[in-house]
Amino acid sequence: MDFGDLVQVREAAQRFLTKSLDAGVRVAIFTASGKPLLEFTNDREKLRGAIAQLHFDARFAIRECPRLPAYFAQMVLDDVATSSLPKGTSRASSSSAASDPGADPVTAINQDDPIKLAEVIAGRQRCPADPGNPDADIQSRARNAIFQNHLGVEVTLTALGNLVQRMAQTPGGERTIAMLSSGFFDRNSQYKLDQLIDRALRSNVVVNTLDARGLVAEESFADLAEVALTPEIQVRIDEMNHRAMKIAADPLSEVAQGTGGVFVENSNDMEGGLAKISEIQAPEYVLGFSPENLKEDGKFHSLHVKLLASGHFTLQARRGYFGPQKAGPAGDAEREKMESALFTQDQISGLPIHVRTASSKAGENSATLSVTVDADMQSVRFLKQDGRNSDDITLTVVVFDSDGNYITARQQTTKLRLTDVALQNLRRGGGETSVDLTLPTGTYLVRAVLGESASSQVGAASQSVRIP
Question: pTM of this prediction?
């Protein structure tokens, strides 16, 4: 949730506890970290105390500049993937600004080009950029925004999945989770969301959801841009913002609809919304089926369910389901290996690495943390392509607080295309790559994972860091 959403929900929850909670109901309060603020109880004073402790957690805030919604950043990457421009061609050369040095770069761009729109926003947000290749710079920032967002969504879905499993083992026949969230978007987590719905259904756990944004009053992206944009560009950016806000609510709707729950949205009556999602939903009939000749294709299969009988019935059904997955492509396996390495504390020496950190003051209560990784490249098998030794090296740095909660992350990929002499020098001296992160003062655990694509080796190491 955003800070403003959290304050609104916290106040409504206190009022709801005072006036509406049934005496016989036992409640526990969990957060996205998976740690309970309070175990199951019907003690209202303990519940009120726990709710008062809820605070804004900045670990889900995208720290990348420019500040782009995840959906907008995904559009940038999709545009790159589908671009028909020749390899190495700069998009700047395709705009009229290139032929007219006096043209306003804001009005000269193609308003349907996400990369150029992001560059405009970056300029208005005063984000330092690479003047030599602004397109590549924006693409790199968009990739990091998507990566940080993905980790945040994964943490949330994992916590919710663990809570479903926990509820399945709780005594009593009626088990309800009331989930409050401002919504989220992550295209790569749809399969995990479907698995979560499936587990809840089999465990007789209903998930009710409430959109904590209430009656959504969409702010103009001009506020993020800090400087007024031209009407044409502003309209296009606002359309993207509208779509981003709408699509963020889809997972909340899907998990409620799929588990037989209630989804409350577009209402500023948070107290009334809490009452709705805290009610026990007891469907009279639960129907299921086993698909015949189900292929292990990992594809999404839509479902359409309708009632033939007339009467006062309410019908809810999940939108569809994913078929079982075979072993995915090599790229998927490599990504899963990297993500698995991120959330363990074990030293992984498939690719031996050494981590160094240094901090410098960035503000009154913050610092820039530089994380440098030295890698032993002796065992790496490079691919020979066009007379060069090729490999892609990806460094991912994740920061956890002293309680083990995910704070932020940074990822960057270096494409190595080396001559034989350069490769020999690299093997003798090792490879070095680094990333910078801005963090408030505190004590952290820094987890660095280095992976390379040619031979799929991974190295990982952790280091404790204190920023005074």
Answer: 0.66
